[in-house]
Design brief:
Helices cover 19% and strands 25% of the residues. The protein is an alpha+beta fold. It has 2 domains: 1-31; 36-182 and 229-318, Immunoglobulin-like (Sandwich). Strand 8 and strand 9 (247-248) form a beta hairpin. The longest helix has 30 residues, at 2-31. Bound molecules: calcium ion (2 copies). One calcium ion is lined by residues 237, 249, 251, 253, 275, 277, 279-280.
Length: 324
Amino acid sequence: MNIRVSKLKLYGVSFLGAMFLSASLFAAEETAPGVKDVTEEEFTPAKEVLNVKYVEMEKPYHIDVESLKGAFKDASSVKITLQKQDKAFPNGGGSVTGAEVKAIHDGLTIYFQITWSDQTRNARAIAVQEFRDACALMFPLGAVEITPAEHFSPRMGDREKPTNIWHWKADWEADLLVKGELEDVEVQYPNMHDDFNLNPYSAYYHRELITSVEVLSGGRAANNLLSQPGRGRTVEDLNAEGFGTLTTQDHQDVNGCSQYADGAWTVIMYRSLITQDPHDVQLVPGGNTYFNMAVWNGGEQDRNGQKNISAQWHPATLEKVAWQ
Ligand code: CA
Ligand code: CA
């Protein structure tokens, strides 16, 4: 009887396994490789054009949202509808339904101001259950015309259609305000202790170990930007060529500042119009570009692909400078 039961079990497991495999293959066929089809309207840019206003301005000694308020006074805005990221796994989001974007330039530097409602200020992501608020702007690299006939995915670009992404992070901005320019685990857990504290001889016998950056902080030793203290900026400069290809750049060129008040974030990201980095979008007064954006609400556990996105590109045109 035992043999018969074992055989039944074996066949049963095999049968269930085959069922599961074919179901997985069927599901994979529909979504492979983890990405649903992009609809045709996503290849059509929005009609409304963001006018990047030329403003003659004295560059403030200390750049923050307040000091740039006057410069943005007469800039027109574009309202961007946001939705949950629903194509690539892990997806989600949807708590932020819209944002307002304004942009100005002074012939040297371009400033994008993004404002959105968010009832929670999440500027720390140290504990595993914590996630940061963030926003990102994305630009196609090179001179491109985006039309339904010339497909260019508004969702992080495509193979051989690279994008430049500027990713502002609330916790990076918080890092700038603390001594050492990096909020560490002790900030989240002030009463923490580690194993070394329990061994009275530890400091003597393990002095080489506990002073070794390579051993204790592999990320820092590998020059990972996320682990670096004193990175001195709030925005990460990245490239992507489709889902799963996000790559930080060797040459970081973007910075930013923010203000959180009355349940809303105002973030300004700024960069030289022109850079020496071939991986950067180059922005020319009198020229055109496209942008797209995303917002993460850490209070709703948004991170990575779980975010609020716009599902189409938005055209932008840069005003000429006064002497052009
Ligand atoms: Ca939030
Ligand atoms: Ca760069």
